[in-house]
Amino acid sequence: MKPAPFDYTRPASVSEAAAALAAGEGGAKLIAGGQSLGPMLNLRLVQPRLLVDVAGIEALHAFEETADALRIGAGITAANIEDQRIDTGAVPLLQRVAAGIAYRAVRNRGTIGGSLCHADPAADWVNLMPALGVRYELVGPSGRRTVAAADFMTAAFETVLAPDEVLETVVIPKPSAGARFGHVKIARKTGKFAMAIAVVVSDPGRGVFRALIGATHGRPLVVEEAASLLGSDGNTPDTARIGALLVEAGITEPAARQLHLTALRRAAAEAFSKALPS
Amino acid sequence: MTDIRLSVNGRPIAGACEPRTHLADFLRDRLDLTGTHLRCEQGVCGACTVLIDGAPARSCINYAVNCQGAEVTTIEGFGGDEVMSRLRTAFHEEHALQCGFCTPGMLVTARDIVLRLPEADAAQVRTELSGNLCRCTGYAGIVRAICRVLDERRGAAPVSAGRLGPVGARPGASVAGARPAMTEAGTAPAAAPGTGELGLGGRKPNLETALSFTVRRPIDEVWAVLGDIPRVARCMPGASLSAPPSDGHVEGRMSVKVGPIATNFAGAARIVREEAERRGTLYGAGRDGLSGSSARAEVTYALAPTGPDATRIDITLKTVLAGPLAQFGRSGIVKELMARLAEQFARRLEQTLEHGAPDDEAMPETSLRPLALIAGLIADKFRSLFRRAR
Ligand code: FES
Ligand code: FES
């Protein structure tokens, strides 16, 4: 239960981190809070030759609220959001989801960007951001680019991130005043990996009615026009169609499908429980 | 070795340690602070919980080098702490411990609950305690003890330590232009295949998958191709044979990479073919030289004609996976991976049967991203479905 040997560097900036990753030629691995990577290193499932520690880089702890978005540094922790050390009140789901991640001792180290890049199919942030229409700003030796959350994760533990790219900022659009949210996570025990996650976002002001089915075996399923799944009132789900989508995503066990369906139903019920303000 | 400086229980500590030394080992083995207990070493049990910069954190999944410049407090460091002293009394009086193994971590977590959530009730205390496992007490005494201290302090203002970013993290020094040192690439120790027992040997499989497909080829031809082991092996993503097969006995390797997780299994297999039944079974066993995980497998294929020029192939795969890969506890993902591997194997087999052996270009033997490939496929299907729905 001890990691295989690795070397260690703590660069001072994001660009230095990207340079160190590039110099590592595939043998280098970025580490932020290390709360997912640590267990894998200890189990020797991951054996990098160099760890590039970005946890202390101040640019990654930046936070800014603009007219239409929250810009959250990738190094902000779940506990920071849980405690509202940064004011994320404009997107109410964030604090709730942050507070439900693993355990407090893990939330004190685990970062939002680290979790997104680790791309564990059951992770909380992974299964929230695509539902909120979030964009990620990535920095690499050849410059910056922006990727939509829905296009970022490609499969379990796989993303479009190049080996020498660093996720710098998570840009979360602000919902309009009439927006409604539902979020349901089903886990066997508080803090355990989720067995099903569902998110429903209804924001008529921005023309959004989106559903996310998460904690699958791969990337979450995102349905842009959720009326086709849940009915225009959000409460008449097409269970046959949802079941077919789950089977296509490899959720073949009936019990697992039922869990996902239940999570989605509950999330929709939460989002549509209160009448929309006129 | 990396030089580190940090403060432990208010004392400045300087020393050199290997980057892979986790904080708990550093505290226990170097500083003799053995009050910090270690059990799971994967962040699950909470026995190793200490304060880093005043906030609870796991010392088993944070490395000592990550704590450069940080302030660490272990269970030995709460001598004059008022809340901890109340908790000690309450734990004693409410029977909140039996063997005491979980107690250092429990107390560190309990103190955080009391300070950060002064208005917590018993239900919230239980939720907050979910990251600390106790094998003895059944938690009732622990919850009572914490509630007792909360009651004693009702009305206190919440206090939460911490800063922006991970606790314990400090900015690094500029290394611009310097090429970082890299540990030499490890070489996977060669397993000794072929000597031990092959197949499941009566063990109960922990992963099973089955699939069927039909190829447009007569059954006798399919049967003959399946007897050509090198050709069949080429259909298995990430697999390679280390020697020509002899008398149904094969040795080889298989490497699969999923994100940062890399495996490199070396193993052996015996293939038994039952001509009359048109059925074959592979009994295999292998070991991952990287993680030390082991796998045993039995793969059966059965052929049935579905027409003069068509054959159905039914494949069942039963595996016993043991070691870190199994311990990691994500059997859903591993199972999915196996199913995808089997699916890709089937597709390549179909290709080799219907169109002859494809060139190596089309069948890379080492690099494999099966989940990525398949997920892309699903996403495409999904998108087209969605377009239709609109
Ligand atoms: S030993 Fe650290 S959480 Fe179990
Ligand atoms: S008292 Fe024995 S594990 Fe908790």
From TrEMBL, chain A:
Domain of life: Bacteria
Domain FAD-binding PCMH-type intervals: 1-177
Key word Ribosomal protein present: no
Keywords annotated in UniProt: FAD, Flavoprotein, Oxidoreductase
InterPro entries linked: Diverse_Substr_Oxidored, FAD-bd_PCMH, FAD-bd_PCMH-like_sf, FAD-bd_PCMH_sub1, FAD-bd_PCMH_sub2, Mopterin_DH_FAD-bd
Alphabetized GO MF terms: FAD binding; oxidoreductase activity
PANTHER family with a match to the protein in the record: XANTHINE DEHYDROGENASE SUBUNIT C-RELATED
Name of this protein: FAD binding domain-containing protein
Organism in which the protein naturally occurs: Ancylobacter mangrovi
Lineage: Bacteria, Pseudomonadati, Pseudomonadota, Alphaproteobacteria, Hyphomicrobiales
Automatic annotation (TrEMBL), chain B:
InterPro entries hit by this protein: 2Fe-2S-bd, 2Fe-2S-bd_dom_sf, 2Fe-2S_ferredoxin-like_sf, 2Fe-2S_ferredoxin-type, 2Fe2S_fd_BS, Beta-grasp_dom_sf, CO_DH_gsu, Diverse_Oxidoreductases
PROSITE patterns: 2FE2S_FER_1, 2FE2S_FER_2
Pfam family, one: Fer2_2
Gene Ontology molecular function, alphabetical: 2 iron, 2 sulfur cluster binding; metal ion binding; oxidoreductase activity
Alphabetical keyword list: 2Fe-2S, Iron, Iron-sulfur, Metal-binding, Oxidoreductase
The organism's place on the tree of life at top rank: Bacteria
Domain 2Fe-2S ferredoxin-type: 2-78
Protein name: 2Fe-2S iron-sulfur cluster-binding protein
Organism listed in the record: Ancylobacter mangrovi
